[in-house]
Amino acid sequence: MDISDFKSNEEIAWCPGCGNFGILTAVKKTLSQLARHPKDILFVSGIGQASKLPHYVNCNCFNGLHGRTLPVASAAKIANRNLTVLVTTGDGDCYGEGGNHLIHNIRRNTDITVIVHDNQVYGLTKGQSSPTSDPGYVTKIQEEGVILEPLHPLEMAIALGAGFVARGYSLETEHLSWLIGEGIRHKGFSLIDVLQPCVSFNKKNTYEWYSKRVYKVNDNGSYDPENKMAAYEKSHEWGDRIPIGIIYRAEKETYEEKRGLSQGIPLVDEQIEDVDIKGILSEFV
Amino acid sequence: MDISDFKSNEEIAWCPGCGNFGILTAVKKTLSQLARHPKDILFVSGIGQASKLPHYVNCNCFNGLHGRTLPVASAAKIANRNLTVLVTTGDGDCYGEGGNHLIHNIRRNTDITVIVHDNQVYGLTKGQSSPTSDPGYVTKIQEEGVILEPLHPLEMAIALGAGFVARGYSLETEHLSWLIGEGIRHKGFSLIDVLQPCVSFNKKNTYEWYSKRVYKVNDNGSYDPENKMAAYEKSHEWGDRIPIGIIYRAEKETYEEKRGLSQGIPLVDEQIEDVDIKGILSEFV
Amino acid sequence: MTNELTIKITGEAGQGIQTIGAALCRLFKNAGFHIFANQDLMSRIRGGNNFFQLRISDKPLFALRQKSDITVALDKASVALHKSSMTDGGILVLDRKKFNVIEEDNAFFDVPFYDMAVRTGGSALFINSVSCGVLAGIVGVESSYVEQAMNATFAGKDEDVIRKNKDAACVGYDFVRSNLKRDAFRIKAGAIKDTNTPIMNGNDAIVLGAIRAGCKFYSAYPMSPSTSIMEVIARYAKKFNIVVEQAEDEIAAINMIIGASFAGVRSMTATAGGGFALMVEGLSLAAMTETPIVVVVAQRPAPATGFPTRTAQADLEFVLHAGHGEFARAVYAPGTIEELFFVTIKAFNVAEKYQIPAIILTDQHLADSYRNIETFDLNKIKIQRYIISKEDSKRIKNYKRYQFTESGISPRAIPSWIEDVIYVDSDEHTEEGHITEDAEMGRKMVEKRFYKKFSGLSQEVEKPTVYNMERADIVLLGFGSTYGVMREVSDTATDKKVGFVHLPQVWPFPAIEMAGLLKNAKRVLSVENNAGGQLARLLRRETGLQVNGSVLKYDGRPFHVDGLMDRIKKEG
Amino acid sequence: MTNELTIKITGEAGQGIQTIGAALCRLFKNAGFHIFANQDLMSRIRGGNNFFQLRISDKPLFALRQKSDITVALDKASVALHKSSMTDGGILVLDRKKFNVIEEDNAFFDVPFYDMAVRTGGSALFINSVSCGVLAGIVGVESSYVEQAMNATFAGKDEDVIRKNKDAACVGYDFVRSNLKRDAFRIKAGAIKDTNTPIMNGNDAIVLGAIRAGCKFYSAYPMSPSTSIMEVIARYAKKFNIVVEQAEDEIAAINMIIGASFAGVRSMTATAGGGFALMVEGLSLAAMTETPIVVVVAQRPAPATGFPTRTAQADLEFVLHAGHGEFARAVYAPGTIEELFFVTIKAFNVAEKYQIPAIILTDQHLADSYRNIETFDLNKIKIQRYIISKEDSKRIKNYKRYQFTESGISPRAIPSWIEDVIYVDSDEHTEEGHITEDAEMGRKMVEKRFYKKFSGLSQEVEKPTVYNMERADIVLLGFGSTYGVMREVSDTATDKKVGFVHLPQVWPFPAIEMAGLLKNAKRVLSVENNAGGQLARLLRRETGLQVNGSVLKYDGRPFHVDGLMDRIKKEG
Ligand SMILES: Cc1ncc(C[n+]2csc(CCOP(=O)(O)OP(=O)(O)O)c2C)c(N)n1
Ligand SMILES: Cc1ncc(C[n+]2csc(CCOP(=O)(O)OP(=O)(O)O)c2C)c(N)n1
Ligand code: SF4
Ligand code: SF4
Ligand SMILES: [Mg+2]
Ligand SMILES: [Mg+2]
Where is the Pyruvate flavodoxin/ferredoxin oxidoreductase pyrimidine binding domain (chains C, D) (predicted)? Predict the structure, then answer.
């Protein structure tokens, strides 16, 4: 497939300069390298700026409720394993409203790839703190600054047994595109938290702020993402230096495999007009 | 206070031999050593067998919805910091339906103590799998055995920055009572996951099964619960050996402290009859 | 007490009352009786007091009686609790020695259960089988039925287990034949000629309907009284290639079935009112995205946790108006097990045809009550798919998911089947499924989802059931599980002629039809398991007609035939 | 166009239209005009098209007009978008050079915004202040008001910033005075003598009400159009010792306010329909546990995400029936900013008195519309606490949280204040708050929570507002935000006499009163921002009366005075 196959004609409603553009570029690039027809790719999103992304690519799109991406995505994958399922969601969508689905879908381990546009703020609702906002971050609601411990999504995902845990940065589109590709290739649930500057509301975690800190975790080739304890250390690193890349990776059997759904015809192709229940009806006699 | 001060006259609706009895014993014992009047202690619970516990002690009780203990408990504490707030909840209640509140209340870090009666099964609804059920565990719903990765509550809590993470065992009532006491004494959110045999539905994780595996994490005095990486290792240990005790501990400022609620009069004692809004009304002129 | 009996087995939770109950249902049906059975459980696993009630008769049964003719007390507490709810001349079976009961009572019939169980089976566990035998003996069915019931109940178990249970039952049976002097309870068997018919409860019927309708994905979170739907469908999941997924919560459950349905698979969830409260946002999502789903709401007394194991019909108005925004929905409220089966199938078809949520409103009483039924006429069933077939899909280009049509229904394509991509959105959207802010588009989409679909749906509403209405002095009005009790009252009322109208579908409300049926009625009483008289209010809103009164019950218990009869007499 | 003007400022999201809007409101009010202002926003942060509409007049204003007399286009796209919605003789202000507009139009009034902004302030940011000046000039208010408005808007900023903005505004003002030939827009100022009165929107009024009512705990999850309630209360949190907590989701929000309220603190949450959908279970919990809470539901178009930044009244039925089980609730639907303030206070009192959930049903239009109002008469307010005081608490022993009383209201103690302990349960419970399975207890508790409380509540329903009803040819009927537009139509209708009835409280429904008011009306039309005619249906259900028609609008936009007038003419 060519990148133009994924072009959508929708006008983009993001602010000029928004970090989401970098993610969009990366996503499209990955798609163009997938060798999958747009009709076989499904984007599931929630509500928020991040969640508008599916409208800007030419793929199937289920743009559902705020926070409820993962149940929709997992079930769509279960229903039709031939779909490549990607989720684009925000830090509010995925870690706030949708937190319970995140922890349980990591456990469920369907083969889906989740891209969290993490701008550490609620963009679409105009600048409230999000679960990942830095302590002290001031908003109209958090007038004296955020006092809750930030959610540590990568660390949490590792603790929950996720098999692919990564962080990207929206300015590093090549690297991000590679990460997303690796996420898709990974069999099972992949979580990619993407640092995404929000130029309108997050005046703290800016391009400059991130760019100064971000480094590739395996730049010198010595980082082993299969070492869980090292991964815990790295995933907790947040300050002067912020690692991006594949933080943790492990092979796990997927939900579909365990359920025996990876063989036989996909559920969606089952003929259902003439299901014969005579046999089981007789069990009630 | 004496243990008899905490005696309730309610008939106990648990099955004979249920692991909940051990927890009840431990709880009462802790209470009797607290030097707090029953009226100053609040139990918050949800729905499930575990959640019936507050009826069996003579303390304040808010027995709310399935899964919704933590928002109630945190807010009650915020409203009246003089209450000692304990939560009794089940593995379904706290980790399933209530998962999102768990992750965010760990971050919120109000000074409450959460006791999870973890029987690895849904007791009250008659034996479905719970988030902590062991893989392969067979139920009427999971006819071919549980296929989801079990939730690792302790590991997850550490990842989320909880300051007190412990595991108890309902047969070890002395130890459990001590743990609960430590949890209460700990300033901030304390999570105590308690292994609790369900004699009616969980025929796998029985008294025998647990007793054979359980050991006190710090029996030889060399375990340092303040070492996070060691805590990660320990919290993941589940198999032939299962550690109980304080797995992780760290001092953190509480929500109340950060909000300035630990000084001044508690919210509940504020006079509200004559709030003067003239000043702010003039800001709208 | 002419040609029917009410039998009650009572004891603590955990004593296996449900197992005896099931065995007895089978036993008496095979002996040719019509049966109706129901359990009364506490929300606990052991202890307390549970009971199983079984009515048998030579005529079809649809409801319960308040008092029992034969009560078998399996523990001491039950004696005191149930002594007062016996009919005159009724008999209470107990193990005097074991329970240490010294007082005398005319109704008592002493049976040394415990000794007999230990003697035959080796342990108290066999009390259940003993009591089966005892009951068969009291009613006087042939002993072969007892054996047959034991064989069926313990099918698949060890030879030895089966034999011991049979022994236990036979000893019980024989004990009665030798010791019971009265034969008042020997009612005539053999009313059903073909006993090769099913016994099932409401939840079973829903599962069978869903399987037949082609449901391939079921996701739910356990909640009484809906849980057994998940258990039963899980039992058949492998055979029919159905994925049954226990969700982390009800919000996940409804969003999962929406996701699976979007992907092209017929999907269902079930819950009670409290779980449905968490699905309300998802219901609205299904409507907005025009994704077909079937949601079973099995009512129980609320607010909040309420009486978890008991019955109510108090969520009618809630279910009718649940969800933010305005959209078409179908709400079914079948009254019998047969209706539940067929309506479930219809719900799947209608949901898919109109691309809407279809709700099946049931309750604990209907969900958990067993009846012997006629074998379903499977030839009546037609599964029609309202999607663009895989064949036709290949030719689709420039697909618009929300294309405007006369009917409000846009042809629905399945992702990956068509060559084009599909956009679906929870925001207000264009025909293409993209987010819009346009007022005109918004207006037209509301009309599509609300007016147009509603108008089509209204054409295929399940007809109200009309019974004994000619020259009726009193017309009862109900929905859902009260069908049974209304029918029995209508059949047996003597003072005045009582007819009834029952709505198996409450939305769209069949307003014109109902107005026609009721406007000349002498006296209309709504019969509802709620405190608000919700059906009566709906009737008034939709037709302007006011009922003359409402017979309401809101204590968590179903109506009994005698109870309703009395109440009607009082209401006049 | 006699004594009023409609002014519109339009541009992209992010151009600061709200700031200019606020400044203009102040400016014109201080100049002695009545104002009504409202914004039309897209659900995005930058780009697209937003506008701020401001009506000014020498008479009190309550609604919007469709067309504007003066439109200021801040970007090129706005010119084409808004050209057609001008009144005859209206004027469209634009920067021809900057926008590169070559076509001619009678309405165009070219103002070199951009140059003036750069010249005076140094950047395009100052366009806002220029346009303030321009508008002041067109309307012809004295220039001192322009300065005053700039001072107020930039109070607290650098001297330099203030001066530059003043310069920019003055340059705009002067430009108009020199270049605008027409003075058609110079309407007479000075109608308000005391200009020392507030301007606020609906959400502000709710916050002020809540603070005055003693709300000490507020928890919510951001959702338009309710978000500004949280922002404004957060602004005053420190001053009044209020805890404002952003919850992880709406479920947490409602459970948190229940927890805080149980502990003795007045608590509130606010959300939109979609967030309320997630609170439905919690609502039922509040009712069951008898914990007072106040919930603001600010409606927006749905289903699902719908039009996030727009208006609707489509959640009336949803809110009335939300929650499983049956329980008393109060639902308010105030029509003005003043009413919102007082009703919010009442909601807190009523919630606490009856220990129930009280809902304030508002919508985006009311939430976000600004008006100049009379200063609230604070002396009218009485905060009464319906709890056992700390004093009295000391004497309480053997406390029963759910003690049966005539009124259904049990004396409410606060944990740790009394010497005894308090049990509260979401299961059906005894008077002591312990779980029960008893049928009789269940029945009595339903009666307590549903019948008895309802009956008390019914005694203190907010009276419907009755306006111009004598000999009215047409009677309009509405709730919530349509008050304003009904009032203006009623005031200005000439063909026929139009009166109206407005319900600031929709539940309990004032049935007897409404029947009295409407039964002799010539022609009743319900005016609703929904597609279902939900108020009309409620009226029929509660009184049997049917309206003669419904004027419905469901495109996400509020009614305009002219629009409603036309529709009424059509409806006859
Ligand atoms: C149930 C519900 N609650 C609240 C909202 C309002 N809402 C829309 S987007 C959003 C937060 C967006 O934040 P995030 O997910 O971080 O996305 P961003 O806009 O920052 O990309 C909220 C609270 C909603 N649509 N639905
Ligand atoms: C919203 C909601 N969903 C489902 C239920 C039904 N329910 C009651 S208890 C329970 C699970 C109990 O499991 P757990 O929390 O582990 O407690 P246990 O009984 O094992 O102690 C469920 C699903 C409910 N009460 N409310
Ligand atoms: S508000 Fe922030 S996240 Fe949203 S589009 Fe604008 S810059 Fe991006
Ligand atoms: S079902 Fe299990 S957890 Fe519940 S009381 Fe019985 S033994 Fe305990
Ligand atoms: Mg964000
Ligand atoms: Mg459990």
Answer: 209-447
